[in-house]
Design brief:
Protein name: CBS domain containing protein
CATH topology: CBS-domain
CATH class: Alpha Beta
Pfam families: CBS
Number of strands: 4
Largest sheet: 2 strands, antiparallel
Strand order of the largest sheet: 1-2
InterPro entries: CBS_dom, CBS_dom_sf, Diverse_CBS-Domain
Keywords: CBS domain
Mean pLDDT: 87
Strand content: 15-25%
Organism: Evansella cellulosilytica (strain ATCC 21833 / DSM 2522 / FERM P-1141 / JCM 9156 / N-4)
Number of domains: 1
Low-confidence stretches: 136-141
Radius of gyration: 15 Å
Helix content: 25-40%
Structural class: alpha+beta
């Protein structure tokens, strides 16, 4: 049975707490991602998403110089590298999560995105379930 460590992206671009929203947005554009973990060293503090920038930044008329910690999502669901891919797919579907930070010993070691699950879940039914449950939801999380 595949583990998250087998499919996760290990080389994750991060922002530090002193970075601002503009710098986070530039990284999102440069790396073509919709979310960036906020870390002190490799300790995960939160995640900033393109939606966070729009809802908590632009819509609240905050300047681009606003620190990422002021608009990031702090309450994150995480997983450990030894969690099975199937268990992660179920958890992500139940909790409506598109990106799952992978943490080991309080340190960010990778991230698994919804697309990763579509490729690596053991059955097409599980992949389809995870994708449909998350994609059809009106809720957007990290």
């Amino acid at each position: 049975m595949k583990k998250l460590r087998d499919i996760m992206t290990g080389d994750v671009e991060i922002c530090n707490p002193d970075d601002n929203v503009y710098e986070a947005a530039l990284k999102m554009k440069q790396f073509d991602v919709g979310a960036i973990p906020i870390c002190e060293g490799r300790q995960l503090l939160g995640m900033i998403t393109d939606r966070d920038i729009v809802v908590r930044g632009v819509a609240e008329k905050r300047p681009n110089s606003t620190q990422v910690t002021d608009v990031m999502t702090e309450q994150l669901l995480t997983a450990e590298p030894d969690m099975t891919v199937d268990d992660a797919a179920k958890m992500m579907a139940e909790k409506q999560i598109r990106r799952l930070p992978i943490v080991e010993n309080s340190q960010l070691v990778g991230i698994v995105a919804l697309g990763d699950l579509a490729i690596h879940t053991t059955t097409a039914d599980e992949a389809g379930y995870a994708l449909s449950e998350i994609s059809e939801s009106e809720h957007y999380h990290h």
